[in-house]
Specification:
The complex is a heterodimer. Chain A is of the alpha/beta class. Helix content of chain A is about 40%, strand content about 10%. In chain A, α3 packs across α5 and α9 (about 305-320) crosses α11. Helices cover about 35% and strands about 15% of the residues of chain B. In chain B, the strands form 3 sheets. In chain B, strands 1, 2, 3, 4, 9, 10, 11, 12 and 13 form a 9-stranded parallel β-sheet that branches. A two-stranded antiparallel sheet of chain B has the order 5-6. In chain B, strands 7-8 form a two-stranded antiparallel ribbon. The chains are: A alpha/beta, B alpha/beta. The structure holds flavin mononucleotide (FMN). Flavin mononucleotide binds near residues 107, 138 and 227 of chain A.
């Protein structure tokens, strides 16, 4: 496909947006390769952010985990672990980048709105309008053991708290009128009298009374991301988010179904259905030829899913400690034990392990797979594999048909894992007219092509509610 | 006291120590909260040869409407400055009266990582009752309760910094283990008002432990690296220093220097028309640079360092960097921090052993002896 292609697609002018997700705790970052660098050295973060910026990415993204993962009460030792506080790290990156957005995943359960809103504003001002906040909630009491309140929030209350949190944060951000700060050293007052509005909020979750401490940035306030997949999570996003960081970017039909679902939810809350960007997390594996790409994928999967990791993943599915088995041998003969998930491993609940195991057995038998090969083949499928031009065609299809607005790329190598994406894939995307050739704005909001902050459109509703 | 050097720190929050300092600043109020301004002040301090900058903070605005003076969070400013400087130490003021010690510990450890070991922490309190309403937490009312929160917060942060041994990341390809879980530790802290499990989510900071500074009495001396002592005259500073019981002591000194345009006294008088420069019981020098040099010389007999609080940064920092620091440096009374040196080493403090590693080593030694 080239620029001269027929425009008979639903979104002929849609543009692809890239973010880069520098992962924290995970087993997808290949740490065992000789060219795998430090996961904590500031140089690694700087390198990834600057490469992404060279590739005109919208955002540099950091996740969050407030307790180290455990399996059966012992710290999980196979994965990459240990990461900086996101807002602190991003504030440092603000000094060494110029255009890329800086997105912090920060929990609404284990923070307080006045504090977090202020930190985010600080990042937004220091980066001159490039901050983003990925609002996550946590559903295990286990994380609470690190905090003053302890583990206290019911699953059902997570999004209620998140929403009220956001309400308070936005009120603080909007409490300082634009242009309120004096623009002359000889002014009578530091700010225009009466232009700063005290926030008095009393709700089920928060009781806050505070004068705003900071003006708004060039983009109004930080761009709101959301990552969470339940119906509640999606509704929360439809009401509040500018960007969804989803897990639906691998398969076209699945991505499109997710996007349609989100658009339906957006319309239901009275927002235009192009008001929100959908950026699924993904991995991109590039080879000069299709065969080379597949070969590379195979190598990467075996680095990611080591024998011990395969046994760990299978152990969670079976509900049995399998660590002393042979990962390169057959599947365990036992039936899975259906146990209460205690939040070990930070894992999701597996609804029906018996069915899954039966399916694994059948497939493994048909293909003659070992346990490790089965885990690799049937575990969560990740990302896109191909040649630069093949991938560019595929992504053009995804974005022009409205399945995604782009991807939040997780490089499998740090800090050099973005190089071939920036050097090989980006030019192909540009050739197809689906990727910018220069930054389109100076703020994250502008680069994502978003309208102004939601609060500016609902000020009247807010007054009525308050 | 160590060596000939006096360490000079400077507090660079806002436009200066005086509440009306913004009226004499070289920029308009709407330029205060910009990255250019934040980076510039730090660069001036670094170029002048200061050992350390501190950044005041708190959840409440520092002034009252319509002169509130906005303030970007000190940790965010510190991290930003860390990435744009290379030798100067950087210590944000972070109260733990209401904040989550787990977050504070992570933020400060991360600051030490992004600054390659140049981070410190000035422990202070959220003293105003309105801070409780801002945080939505029960009021921590009296000085004793505030000191308790500071003490516990420092204890938790320090324990978390040790909760990863230095070599906890082993990247053992043979066993496919990224971590050695024997080198990670739960801290299992239980205080009067909360408990923290650990371990940290951030690997041990480059300095092992950040340099912790506070007024004596608020945090137990055993938890402090540097006491920040007050006193209106040399005798009270000397007395406070003798009583501090900390590895290093810095005296707090407020300065309003003569500039080419106006004397220190004239500048103070100008600002006093708008707001009082509250007496906090600190040494205060108003006048020419050479008298400040003499005062610092005098102080060097008693303390390891001085933290300066300039009346107006844009005015006083320039006199400090043109006249005061060069003169002191010529007399070998102050030394610039060296590139690649941690704040701890600049201050002549050892990198502390990891408490958990030390405990494990002690057990091993005992077993060997048996
Ligand atoms: C793609 C994606 C990335 C996520 N990243 C994080 C993260 O970095 N930190 C975190 O605490 N939770 C993260 N979450 C978890 C969600 O915030 C949420 O807690 C979880 O999905 C459960 O919510 P749900 O029931 O709405 O799905 C992520 C979720 C998704 C789908």
């Amino acid at each position: 496909m080239t620029r001269t292609d027929p425009l008979d697609v639903p979104r002929p002018h849609a543009q692809l947006h890239f973010g880069v997700f520098f992962q924290g705790v995970n087993h997808w970052t290949v740490w065992s390769a000789p060219d795998s660098g430090s996961q904590i050295d500031p140089a690694s973060f700087r390198k990834v952010a600057q490469t992404a910026e060279r590739g005109l990415f919208d955002a540099f993204f950091l996740g969050e985990g407030l307790r180290l993962r455990e399996v059966d009460g012992r710290i999980h030792d196979l994965d990459v672990a240990g990461r900086p506080d996101a807002l602190t790290q991003l504030s440092a990156l603000a000094a060494v980048t110029r255009r890329i957005g800086l997105v912090s995943t920060s929990n609404s359960t284990f923070n307080e709105p006045a504090d977090l809103a202020r930190r985010l504003s600080g990042l937004d001002l220091l980066s001159e309008g490039r901050a983003g906040w990925n609002v996550v909630t946590t559903d295990n009491a286990w994380t609470g053991a690190n905090f003053r309140r302890g583990g206290y929030l019911d699953h059902a209350d997570r999004y209620r708290r998140a929403e009220e949190f956001l309400t308070v944060a936005r009120a603080l951000w909007d409490g300082w009128e634009d242009g309120a700060t004096a623009d002359s050293a000889g002014a009578r007052h530091w700010s225009v009298p009466g232009a700063l509005h005290r926030v008095r909020h009393r709700g089920p979750q928060f009781d806050v009374d505070l004068a705003p401490t900071l003006p708004r940035s060039a983009q109004g306030h930080p761009v709101i991301f959301q990552a969470g997949d339940s119906g509640e999570g999606r509704d929360f996003a439809a009401r509040n988010a500018d960007v969804i960081f989803s897990a639906h970017g691998n398969d076209f039909d699945d991505a499109l179904a997710f996007a349609e679902d989100i658009r339906t939810r957006l319309r239901a809350v009275g927002r235009p259905d192009d008001d929100l960007r959908i950026l699924p997390g993904t991995e991109i594996i590039i080879g000069a030829t299709e065969e080379e790409a597949q070969e590379k994928k195979r190598w990467i999967r075996f680095q990611q899913v080591t024998p011990a990791t395969a046994l760990g993943i299978a152990g969670l599915l079976w509900g049995i400690d399998l660590s002393d088995r042979d990962a390169d041998g057959p599947l365990p003969e036992e039936d899975p034990v259906v146990a209460e998930n205690d939040g070990s491993f930070g894992a999701r609940r597996i609804a029906d392990p018996r069915t899954v195991v039966a399916e694994w057995r059948a497939k493994a038998e048909t293909h003659g797979w070992s346990l490790r090969e089965t885990v690799i083949a049937l575990g969560p499928q990740r990302g896109h594999v191909g040649t630069p031009s093949g991938l560019a065609d595929k992504f053009a299809h995804f974005v022009r048909h409205g399945a995604v607005d782009g991807f939040n790329v997780t490089p499998f190598l740090v800090p050099d894992g973005l190089d071939d994406i920036v050097d090989l894939l980006v030019p192909e995307l540009q050739e197809r007219g689906i990727y910018r050739t220069e930054y389109t704005g100076t703020t994250l909001r502008e680069n994502l092509g978003l309208r102004g902050p939601l609060t500016h459109r609902t000020a009247r509703d807010r007054r009525q509610a308050g | 006291m160590t060596g000939p050097a006096l360490h000079l720190a400077v507090e660079i929050d806002g436009d200066g120590a005086h509440p009306a300092a913004w009226r004499r600043a070289a920029h308009s109020p709407d330029q205060l909260l910009t990255p250019r301004r934040v980076a510039r002040v730090a660069a001036v301090a670094e170029n002048a040869g200061f050992t350390l900058i501190t950044l005041d903070d708190g959840v409440l605005p520092p002034g009252a409407s319509p002169d509130p003076v906005g303030r970007i969070g000190a940790v965010e400013r510190a991290a930003f400055v860390a990435a744009s400087t290379s030798t100067i130490g950087i210590a944000p003021i972070v109260p733990v009266t209401y904040a989550e010690p787990f977050h504070v510990s992570s933020q400060l450890a991360s600051l030490d990582h992004v600054s390659a070991g140049r981070a410190g922490w000035v422990v202070a309190e959220e003293e105003r009752p309105e801070a409780a309403r801002a945080w939505g937490r029960p009021l921590v009312a009296d000085a004793e309760a505030q000191a308790r929160e500071s003490r516990d917060g420092v204890e938790v942060a320090r324990a978390l910094w040790d909760s990863w041994e230095d070599d906890a990341v082993i990247r053992s390809v043979a066993t496919s283990r990224y971590l050695d879980r024997e080198r990670l530790h739960y801290i299992d802290f239980t205080g009067e008002t909360y408990a923290v499990k650990g371990p940290a989510i951030v690997p041990r900071p480059p300095q092992g432990q950040l340099v912790v500074l506070a007024r004596p009495g608020r945090v137990p001396a055993a938890q402090l690296d540097v006491a920040l002592v007050e006193g209106r005259d040399l005798a009270s500073v000397a007395a406070a220093t003798a009583a501090a019981g900390t590895p290093r002591v810095f005296a707090e000194v407020e300065v309003a220097l003569d500039t080419p345009d106006a004397t220190g006294a004239e500048r103070v008088a100008d600002l006093e028309r708008h707001a009082p420069w509250t007496d906090q019981g600190r040494l205060r020098h108003i006048g020419p640079a050479d008298r400040l040099i003499a005062l610092l010389h005098e102080l060097s007999r008693h303390v390891d360092g001085v933290r300066l609080h300039p009346l107006v940064l844009d005015e006083d920092l320039s006199v400090l960097s043109r006249l005061v620091l060069p003169a002191l440096s010529e007399r070998r009374l102050v030394a610039r921090p060296l590139p690649g040196t941690s704040l701890r080493s600049t201050l002549g403090l050892e990198r502390p052993a990891n408490r958990f590693a030390a405990a494990a080593a002690a057990v091993a030694a005992q077993e060997d002896a048996r």
